[in-house]
Predict the 3D structure of the following.
Amino acid sequence: MKYIYLDNAATTPVDPVVRDYVLGFLSEEFGNPSSAHVLGQRTAAVIERARKSVAEAVGSGPWNVYFTSGGTEADNLALFGTVPRGKRKKVIISAIEHPAVGEACGHLESKGIEVVRIPAPSGVLDTLALSSSVDDDTAAVALIHVQNEIGTVQPIACASRMVREKAPKAHFHVDAVQSMGQLEKLDIPYEVDSVAVSGHKIHGLKGTGALLVRPGAKVRPVLFGGEQQDGLRPGTENVPGIAGMGKACELLVEKRAAASALMSRLSRELKERIVDSIPDVMIPGDEDRMCPATFSVGVKDVMSEVLLRVLQTKGVIASAGSACHTGNNEPSAALVSAGLPGGWGAVRFSLSRNNTEDEIEQAARLLSESVQEIRKGSVAV
Amino acid sequence: MTSGSDRADSRRGIVMRWGELFLKGQNRSFFVKVFRRNVGTVLKRCCEDFCVSRGQGRLYVDVEPGRQVVDSLRRVFGAASISPVWYVRPDVDAIRDMAVHLAVEKRPPGVRTFRITTRRVDKSFETNSTRMNTLIGESVRLATGLGVDLENPDFNIGIEIAGDRTFVFSEKISGAGGLPTGVSGKGLLMLSGGIDSPVAGWLAQKRGLYLSAVHFHSFPYTSEASQKKVLELAHYLGWHQKSLELYMVPFAKVQERLKKKVQPELLVVLYRRSMIRIASALAQRLRAQCLVTGESLGQVASQTLQNMASIEKASTLGIIRPLITYDKIETIELARNIGSYEVSVQPHDDACSVFVPRHPATRTEIEDLLEAEEKAAVTGMEKEVLDNAECIRPEFSGKDPGL
């Protein structure tokens, strides 16, 4: 069965150009980038080029780019590498962070760090509440850029300026794992000290990511055992993965404007069709702050897991909340805070530049069919 | 006297003794045939080269007695005990040499006393058992300095004299007991994915039932992962049989119909009755003579005495419930021994809980149930879901999953 893939926030298919480029590093270009000989120097140059591509794709440089095993490691490095900061022992995050930040902060909490979770009604951070929480004790503030389940874009410009003013020494981290592939421009303000990104959300390889750090911002290593990447992230670099991530970033920059416009148009159409054809549905999150490619649909009288399975049998792949923690039947804190009523199910649709108008039309029709069948209690085959 | 190098070359093998099978008078040869076939089935899955032949009260398994093979064979039902053995020439010197070798090299640490137990199957062998015990015992005593204790020895060296099949052994491992799987007929196990039903199946196999299994799933209300889990559980039961047919019945349709037509408190009992009717029909197609379930008295709402009676009335066949009087803790202990526990405790969705209210009825009257079934008219649908059942035959090879 050919599936309509609408779960790009979980992962994206590897771009064939990236795949072909990476293959070279699985055969003849195998040198260790730390080696002084020619093979090593060649792969070292590839990594340097990838660094530039990643920095360019994120924009608003200058950045020092440190490659990691993915977005989760980048977020963890940003937090554990900056907290505590001297006497400052407080971290501020939003209530709707991805677990890579949320659970990392839970761990910090168990070590005696104070963690403040700022509410996000309608899926958007309450900047006033943030402002009143930031003080001289604040070691770091971490914010998700595009929320991974509801797709709301967070006011990082306003938040980072506010933090810089009230706590100039605090580290400001942005989790841009979702936003990187979706927004036409990331517009990271200069006040942001670090940004986490991931390769497989932008048609690169799984197991690749990066932490971009402002020159001058202090981040301590959490791994030890080598001088690679200024000692901040030691260990022989994942050359194929990094090369692939660099290539994926180049493609992203090249296709971004068109892709973002396409995804915006398609997701607007999908939302309209859903709202028009299915009674008792809602789209959680502030309408004016939605990113182009990701949104959730709340559906009354339907269990998320069941809806997903029915959709899958009809050929549509979506997800319930974040793919990183499926299997949990409770709606996530993010969905609840964005206004999903109790007892409603929710599915998340996330698009990529590969989706077509035809797919969107079919997906909307199949969703409507599925919901009707579930509500009638006749989905069994 | 045999030289050391002969000892090293000495042919090894396994001897399996059957227990209860002796009691079966006229049926014995059938029982032994099935036992031998089951041993062959297990061996085929874990080793390449072997030969099984029948002796008096035992099977001779010609195979290198590695730990894994021995452990697999001791789980074959019908075996009372099993020993890895060393074959020797049927003469006193060769036997003595091997016995001394075992006593010196293979005795566990801390052993202080021993005995020799000789069984002379071949009565033409000139030295009788008592004399052999004395002769060999004396040599072992001199070689090791151990004391002799006929009543309660720390270490027993066994000798069997039977022409070509003359062997010496030092280990007698208890077998799984029971009757060879298959001698009592065929049963259909209702396999849910929980802890109890695989244990119930295993106990039924132990009393000689050859099993097929049926699983009721409620896709899309339950996940595909739950079906995979059931398939994995089937491996633990199928290992000891030639094969195991697992039927996956898509039950959601019946549940949807019942949910629409009857009061929610009755749903669990009605589901169970429907499953029993479908399983009975399937059992008849498969020529199985009974159903096997993991029910335990009073464990859940559908397992009260009244509800079990109501459920039983839906069956056209006898229902065997091996766990009926077991505590959960006893069942868990058995599940751990079988090896199925680790799989059973993985999270899964249960078909019986779909649409079911928090407090289902614990006492149901058969009249109410019949009336509800009349209203829901599920009979035709039950036939349809049975026709749509998928039959899976798991592949068995490599390592016994229960080890």
Residues 16-252 of chain A form a domain with the Aspartate Aminotransferase; domain 2 fold (CATH 3.40.640.10). Chain A touches chain B through twelve residues (CB under 8 Å). Residues 320 and 346 of chain A are 6 Å apart (CA to CA). Chain A has a mean pLDDT of 94.
